[in-house]
Amino acid sequence: SEYIGGAFRTQDGASLSISNSTVSGNSASDYGGAIHHGSNGDLVIESSTFSNNTSDIGGAIRWRPNSGSATAQLENTVCSGNEASGVGGCIAAQSGGVLEISDNENLENTAPVGGGIFAADIEEVVARGNLFCLNSATDGDGGGALLSEISGGDHSWTNNRMVENSATGSG
């Protein structure tokens, strides 16, 4: 296992695009079991599956662009059975940028905080038509999703389904 990005690691302005792919069974001890995108370049994931990946922050994906202009887009993607020992069972989005998630399925992901998604200190979250089901925050808030310190003040949550998610804290 790697310390950062079990399958992919980006940095220094690189962008990453993944489509029609399966990313499964990867691990990183620190950040992004499957992907650590620590770059101000864009991240685009379409029609893919992320399953059974593990890490401390971002069981499947850690997105940390350090830039307000960067965008992470996930569309028609399944994120299932991923686990973080810290935050963000499927996704941990931190430090700038816009997170756009559309028509995805977040299923049975686990983390102490933000079982499905943990988003903190980013510009904006736009979520449309997603299913969050059976995600679990085992030691805090946000079974399906935890949104904190969205610096642009904007987040849009439209036609999403939150089904049987659980948290030991709130949400």
Outline the structure in words.
The protein is an all-beta fold and 171 residues long. It is built from no helices and 25 strands. It has strands at 2-4, 8-10, 16-19, 22-24, 28-31, 35-37, 43-46, 49-51, 54-57, 61-63, 71-75, 78-80, 83-87, 91-94, 98-102, 105-107, 110-111, 117-120, 124-128, 131-133, 136-137, 145-148, 154-158, 161-163, 166-167. The strands form 6 sheets. It has a 6-stranded parallel beta sheet with strand order 2-6-10-14-18-22, with no helix packed on it. It is globular, with a radius of gyration of 14 Å.
Key terms:
six-stranded parallel beta sheet; 52% strand; mainly beta; globular; 171 residues
What is the number of strand segments?
25
Largest sheet: 6 strands, parallel
The SS-based structural class is: mainly beta
Total helices: the number is 0
Helix content: under 10%
Strand order of the largest sheet: 2-6-10-14-18-22
Mean pLDDT equals: 93
The low-confidence parts are none
Binned strand content:
over 45%
Measured between the Cα atoms of the first and last residue, the distance is 32 Å
Order of helices and strands: EEEEEEEEEEEEEEEEEEEEEEEEE
Inertia-based shape: globular
Global Rg: 14 Å
